[in-house]
Amino acid sequence: MDNTAVKEWIYSQETQAVRLLQKLIQEKSVRGQESKAQAVIIEKCREIGLQLDIWEIQKKDIMNHPFYRCDRDDFSGNPNVIGVLKGQGGGRSIILNGHIDVVPEGDEAAWNVDPFSGVHRNGKVFGRGATDMKGGTVALLLAIEALKATGVLLKGDIIFQSVIEEESGGAGTLAALLRGYTADGAIIPEPTNLKLFPKQQGSMWFRILVKGKQAHGGTRYEGVNAIEKGLEVVKRLQDLEKKRNENVLDPLYGNIPIPFPINIGKFESGKWPSSVPDLAVIEGRIGVGPHETMEGVEKELQYCLEGLSEKDRWFEDHPVTLEWFGGRWQPGSIESDHPFMEAVSEAYLEVFDSPPVIEASPWGTDGGILSKGGNIPVIIFGPGTTESAHDANEFIEVRKILQSAEVIASAVIKWCEVEYQ
Amino acid sequence: MDNTAVKEWIYSQETQAVRLLQKLIQEKSVRGQESKAQAVIIEKCREIGLQLDIWEIQKKDIMNHPFYRCDRDDFSGNPNVIGVLKGQGGGRSIILNGHIDVVPEGDEAAWNVDPFSGVHRNGKVFGRGATDMKGGTVALLLAIEALKATGVLLKGDIIFQSVIEEESGGAGTLAALLRGYTADGAIIPEPTNLKLFPKQQGSMWFRILVKGKQAHGGTRYEGVNAIEKGLEVVKRLQDLEKKRNENVLDPLYGNIPIPFPINIGKFESGKWPSSVPDLAVIEGRIGVGPHETMEGVEKELQYCLEGLSEKDRWFEDHPVTLEWFGGRWQPGSIESDHPFMEAVSEAYLEVFDSPPVIEASPWGTDGGILSKGGNIPVIIFGPGTTESAHDANEFIEVRKILQSAEVIASAVIKWCEVEYQ
């Protein structure tokens, strides 16, 4: 099929796409505040003419699933949104999934622009969520609208999903799966910088409680500083990360400096400058390879922490406590020669006149829930860049949104097939 | 003068003293919540028959004093309390000063008792503030009441002060000084474990802001972790502490493992387990020797932090920021042969039949404000122990409260002199 009309339509919509992305960024959809950004999505889905399913997640509907791991009880007012474009029948279906939640903006002083302004400058749109992944969601909607606007009649269904909770472990996508939404393939436009990721790293959040002994700061030698003990734990985690990444042979990780990082995301200790703190709380995430199980990695970290007492007797009588909480992303993978990979790769080749770069994702996505939980082949492919995600001055190139929309539209045509009339 | 009657009266009041201390501990007088514990003090002062002066500190009255350093704007509802026992005239006056504020209880799990219960067991009373310094305040009130009850008529005035804000830099004692309260000597019964401290270490609170660079945890190598950079700052502070304590020759510091400690009291960084944090905030206190100036020590710490870039180029482009905030205690000292030291030492000798142990305090007190700001000779002498201060399971021995009350009553008699009728 000749996709010229689809392509031309997409490129004619640059101004509208930028405006939609700006509106999405301007609604600060951090955890628990997703409703206004979802309202923008709903409005757009209505405009395109998708069949909407808007619902508030009920904890009881998902909490018994083995992949459920969520420390949020109340989802009221902040719905999941699904928009379906029914096909004519007889074709393969596709899920196009994006998450609406964004991580907090961090230290505002590090931003050169208001993180929720959506400034458009030099072909880039700036703001928290631009790259992770409201830009990707705009690409999905642009692709779907292009197919609709140019009169392409698909055999298979498109199931567009705008989910909450991805940044906290995927309760949104899990809820969509358990509501019955499945498909023959799924694309998630997380920031791959237009690379194809058939493998996704999983990850888990952990919390480590480190004990000290209180004392007055003026006689700090009478106490044991939990901050100093916490530093030993940080060093131990750094060593474990090194060990876990020494012998990764999978060529898809060839360009990735640390395939399965351990990130120390939070260190909190002490309440009073003149007191020796007696507790340090360390939170972070540990990457899980597609070849690993969550349980195996849990044991490895536990074992690593038990070794703390070898170098410091303090930990013998005061062992640290390891907790698994919040976010938990299953790893996922499909073979590089899977038909779905072939369809998306061909679409890429058509658009760029060169084959795609294929790598493994350095982070967890909701893809693991779809593939491990729903047996759906998943490919991560999107316009943003990992470097910009979660960073200050997060941005996305508008050009890449349009390019990825073109690839996705073309891939949908190949996968879902066209009904010629 | 024969102090037998005073002594007997003090020892007859053990039950009442314990009860008063328990009532004080049960009122959780952390910063901003001092009013109920002050009400207990006020009631007791009324009972003894002291002339009360109860007032709320006005920031404008003290904020222009060079020793003012306070990040609290609102003192309303939480007064300073002074109770005066006027002498007959012609004698030296004395300030007996105790602070009513306590530091937070810390990790409650580390306590074997409710930190605000005031449990009395095996001759000890337990709870936050028992040793620092509600036990000392009870000793002061016991000494004053003993003099009153046994009909001792002093020539000089006793000015009893129950102040707020000591743990945060001394705004309470500064306000009392600027309200006009001065004297020929002052005893502060901070926890010296019945030793005499004619020299007091000063201290200052500092805050260090350490920059990183945000990134997604899955590609943490794209960012710079502020926690890791913060650890380098902690190490640097540890080195500075070592250097500053290498050549302390003053024999009064002979038994103190670290005469002028640098305490890291707080380390906070990061908000999200899957993000690389871009800011770490470190708070602590640095000890200031009686031979040093605050300004000199400020410069030394600043210079030390500037050296961070020698080992790590990151700090060259991202220097840390040093702030001086909150608590600030002037160092203080009087000569060991000062007449006031002689009076208190003689009182001690009478009670214990052995000379007092004389040391330098390992922590700052409000004494520096009285001595440097009011030219008042100050001695720190109290029943608590430094080890127990700011710690979980803080306690005080009841016996020592009674002993210190006896020494203080006797010292007051020597210093203020008795009017024989």
Q: In CATH's first tier, which class of the largest domain in chain A applies?
A: Alpha Beta
Low-pLDDT residue spans of chain A: none
CATH topology of the largest domain in chain A: Aminopeptidase
Lateral arrangement of strands in the main beta sheet of chain A: 1-2-6-3-7-17
Description:
The structure is a homodimer of 421-residue chains. The first copy, chain A, is an alpha+beta fold and 421 residues long. Chain A folds into 2 domains: 4-200 and 331-416, Aminopeptidase, CATH 3.40.630; 204-329, 2-Layer Sandwich (Alpha-Beta Plaits), CATH 3.30.70. Helices cover 35% and strands 21% of the residues of chain A. The first copy, chain A, has 13 helices and 18 strands. Chain A has helices spanning 4-12, 14-26, 35-48, 59-62, 130-149, 171-178, 226-244, 294-306, 308-311, 314-317, 339-352, 367-374, 398-416, and strands spanning 51-55, 80-85, 94-99, 120-121, 124-126, 158-163, 186-188, 196-200, 202-211, 215-216, 262-269, 275-276, 279-288, 321-329, 332-333, 358-361, 378-380, 395-397. The first copy, chain A, has a 6-stranded mixed β-sheet, with helices on both faces. Chain A has a 4-stranded antiparallel β-sheet with strand order 11-13-9-14. In chain A, strand 4 and strand 5 (124-126) form a beta hairpin. The longest helix of chain A is centred in the N-terminal third of the chain and has 20 residues, at 130-149. Chain A is elongated. The two termini of chain A are 13 Å apart. The interface between A and B is large, with 66 and 67 residues. Strand 11 (262-269) of chain A pairs antiparallel with strand 11 (262-269) of chain B, so a sheet runs across the interface.
